[in-house]
Each structure stands twice: as C-alpha cells, then as structure tokens.
Amino acid sequence: DTGVSQDPRHKITKRGQNVTFRCDPISEHNRLYWYRQTLGQGPEFLTYFQNEAQLEKSRLLSDRFSAERPKGSFSTLEIQRTEQGDSAMYLCASSAGPNTIYFGEGSWLTVV
Amino acid sequence: AQSVTQPDIHITVSEGASLELRCNYSYGATPYLFWYVQSPGQGLQLLLKYFSGDTLVQGIKGFEAEFKRSQSSFNLRKPSVHWSDAAEYFCAVAPHAGNNRKLIWGLGTSLAVNP
Predict the structure, then answer these.
(1) Contact between A104 and B43 using a beta-carbon 8 Å cutoff
(2) pLDDT digits over B69-106, tens only?
(3) Residue B57 C-alpha, separation from nearest chain A C-alpha, in angstroms
C-alpha cells in the first residue's frame, strides 16, 4: 500500500523561473488536493480535483499557478515566474470520499 | 467564526511520561475532528479522527483523543511518550461534512521529548 507520493521533495529555483511539482495519489482515490504550508502554519487549501475535473480553486491560487490532473490519476502543480513569496512547502493530498484526506510528504520550494 | 485553538505552542516531556495536547474548537454543531502529526520537513500524517459515536477514539502510534462537547475540546493523549514522537501536532476541524478539503487548522503544538 503506497501513500501519496510527491516529486521533487526539494526544489531551489531562481526568482522568475518556472517550477513544476508532481503528485501521485493513493491509487483508488478519486479526489486530489493541493495545499501550501509555511512555517508555523497549517496547510492552506489551493485547489481540488475530483477525477480529472478541477472543481475548486482558492483565491490564493493566482494566475501564475496552474494545476492539472489530465487522466484523473497523477497531478501537476506549475508555478510560473516564481517569486520569493512562493517559498513554502506544497502538499498534495488525496481521498476516496469527502471525509478523510491523506497527505503526501510535501515538496519544499525555495525561491532565491 | 469557526476556529481551532491549540493553547500550547511548545511542550517538552520526558521519554516515558504521559502526554496531553490540548485542542479547542469554536463551532455550533458537532464538527469532524482530526489530529495530524508532522515530523520536520515531512508531510502530515493522520493520527486519528472523530466523526460521531464513541467520544474516545483510538489512533495510530498509541495515541487517543477524547471529544468533549461540553468543553468544545478534542485533546490528544498518549500514556507513554517515545523519543520518536517529537514532532509538530496539528488539530483540525472540518466544519461541514463533505468539506474536508477546507479544514480549519490550529497553529500546531511542537513536542520535544527529553531522553
């Protein structure tokens, strides 16, 4: 039984560059979520997919952010023209239903 | 507004000692309640959850939590702490069934364990 997998685990990028994170959910889970977490805070909801449909996006998800889940399995989160304020841990999570979500180990982004 | 309070920012206990981490929520009805643990640089692992029924819930790693409606609390306990329990602990509330994606999180309690 594999959990939620995220890649890469750490990314250091220069300001202005684009970065992409990948998430592989638990295989039988049809719901997938992206969150952002900064030090000392709980996760902030970014976006939510049910199968391949992106059903909800937070206001936190500016137009520099885009997420996809093309075949209803893995998902990617792309950040274009990164800014220092984007430095955070990006968490992916999945669930089979509406109640209990399972998180991946996160992808740390540092923008220098 | 709905909120979750973890009154203790940091707690230090000795290995083998008992532990209680406090969580209070503000919500009109019975919420869905969760405790997650996060080791440094890692994602969040679900320890336990309460939706309904028995107010004492058992979780993984020997943790348990008790829902007390009268106190709006969902405190996490462990009878004997191990050094590997050192981590950040988050209490969270899902205010509506079916809306777990927008959990309301406490600010976390950092647990240190002395040998």
Answers:
(1) yes
(2) 999 999 999 999 999 999 999 999 987 665 677 788 99
(3) 15
